[in-house]
Amino acid sequence: MWTLSPAGSALGTSRHKDPADDGDHPERGDVPGWVMITLMSAALVAGLLALAGPALEGLFNQAMSKVGK
Question: What does the alpha-carbon distance between residue 23 and residue 2 come to, in Å, rounded to a whole number?
């Protein structure tokens, strides 16, 4: 909650902590969880690409050669 502060304040307002505000806001996201999901997804894609890359490249080249005929 924003309230006016004493006349000596440079900004004229100050942030007072609401006693009911314990930091568990219902719309607050789980940032570390999303970061972990993103990194794990990127690692999974990179791992699959490293393992299946040559096979996918062969399939692509084979398909392109058939289309080009």
Answer: 17
DSSP string, 19-68: TT--S--TT---HHHHHHHHHHHHHHHHHHHHHHHHHHHHHHHHHHHHHT
Is pTM beyond 0.70? Reply is: no
Q: Which two tokens stand for residue 48?
A: 């699959």
**Partner residues linked to 14 by β-bridges:** 3
Tens of pLDDT, residues 29-51: 677 888 999 999 999 999 999 99
Tokens in use for 51?
């393992």
